[in-house]
Amino acid sequence: MIERLYVKNQLSFKACDIHFDKGLIVFTGPSGAGKSVLMQGLLSLFGYGEPMADVMECSIERELGLDGFGFEEANPNIFKYVKSKSARYFVNEQSISKKGMMELSRTFVNYLSVKDNSEFENEKLLTLLDGVCARSIPEHFNEVMHFEEIYLTYKKFKEELDELEKQEQKVEELKEFARFEIAKITEVSPKIGEDEELLAFKKSLSKKEKLEISLKNASAIFSAESYVQEVFALSDTSSAFFDECMNELRALFEKENEKLEALDEIDVEAMLDRIEKIAGLKKRYGSINETLEHLEKRRLELEKYENIAFEKGKLIKEVGRQFTHITESAHHISRRRKESLPLLEEKINDYLKQLYMPPISLAIEEGPLSGLGIDLLHVELGKVDLKKISSGEYNRVRLAFIATHNDFLQANGGILVLDEIDANLSGKESMSVANVLKQLSVKYQIFAISHQPQLSSMADMHFIVIKETNNESNVHLLDENARIKELARMISGENITEEAIDFAKSLLKSRDL
């Protein structure tokens, strides 16, 4: 329950500090006084619509389950937004986003707007029907929650299977490409360091002819060796240094000649072809190391592709097993819902009768499997499409659903904000709406704007919104005499008659009976 609402600079409202009790709270006043502005300010505090005030704050003296949203409970809980360049929202002085505020407030604030048709969404209708089922079978809600869990598991496996089947359509192309790359690398079978050795051979080949000529020409030195030895002998000089050099020279010549012989045995064309193939692999994959890593990767991929049929078979079996299980559960839940449907229909029609509306009929048909089961719940108002009825009729149908929701699901009540619920109704119809709202106000704290005396007379708190001569809006709680005067104004207009005053008194008197 909202105990206090503080507003600062909400369009025509400069500042107001309003205190509330529980029950039905109605705002009346001349058109353009600011009733809708005030109500929209209250809603914007909970994330519904854009805030227009500089500051909006309310206190709620009730446990709201804030710990489930990461906030500490307080007594009272304080909801606030402050607008400077942008609106900032707070719950018990902890910052929260606008979206987060709306998600949190939905657990205790129900806003029935003119454009809202959420009461007739399949999910909400089935939740209401499940509440009826749970009245006689308490474990029904747990079974519905368990069904949602196993459906999510089934959905996960089904998505995996769908993805695998998409891969399977491409798998032959992928397998062919993997085989092609494996064959291309395996054909060359490069070895680490081989590219450097081949380049060294290639470099040697480019010098082979020059080396042969140089060795042939330099071999003349050995024919003059004996003459040099003779010079050393005649000069009584040691030839050790010369002998050592000549031995090293012979070793060098022998080594180079062996290389030349080895090069003569090489298939030059084959070697150049291999160099070219290895260069092609390196250009495509990087180094030889990277080429061999890519080969291993492709082999693993090919193995995976070859196993897809096996994996698919396993998934098909698992998905089939889960589908059978959840289908059985969905049909079990559906049977319960169908058994409880007459009771739900009866309860809604009880309220519709009070609201002077024709009865609705409810029908369940089987739809596609989802987290809600297999049920599609349809609402029909006689032979009339709900989308084609008047706004007054539409609001009363929605009110009947909200009242039924309160009977079966709203154990702890909450806050209900109504957007001119009795607009365009006759006096009798307006009173029927007032009576239903009075019943709801036992659990709900209800905020409503009204232009009808019937609903206003039933209020536990009646506020008037007026616009002063300075164009500033203000809110005042009416005492008994002021209520009579305001109700009489609503009945006869600005020129209040004695008959209007008598009727206003009779409305207030009938409220207390």
Description:
By secondary structure, the protein is α/β, with parallel strands linked by helices. Among the domains are: 1-108 and 413-478, Rossmann fold (3-Layer(aba) Sandwich); 154-314, no CATH class. The chain is 58% helix and 17% strand. It is elongated, with a radius of gyration of 46 Å. The two termini are 26 Å apart.
Topology:
Elements: E1 2-10, E2 13-19, E3 24-28, H1 35-45, E4 55-60, E5 77-83, E6 87-91, E7 94-96, H2 98-105, E8 109-112, H3 122-136, H4 140-188, H5 194-218, H6 220-223, H7 225-234, H8 240-265, H9 268-285, H10 288-354, E9 360-370, E10 373-381, H11 391-408, E11 414-418, H12 427-440, E12 444-449, H13 453-457, E13 461-467, E14 473-477, H14 480-492, H15 498-511
Parallel strand pairs: 3-12, 3-13, 8-11, 11-12
Antiparallel strand pairs: 1-2, 1-4, 4-5, 5-6, 6-7, 9-10, 13-14
Helix pairs in contact: 3-10, 4-10, 5-8, 5-9, 9-10, 10-11, 11-12, 14-15
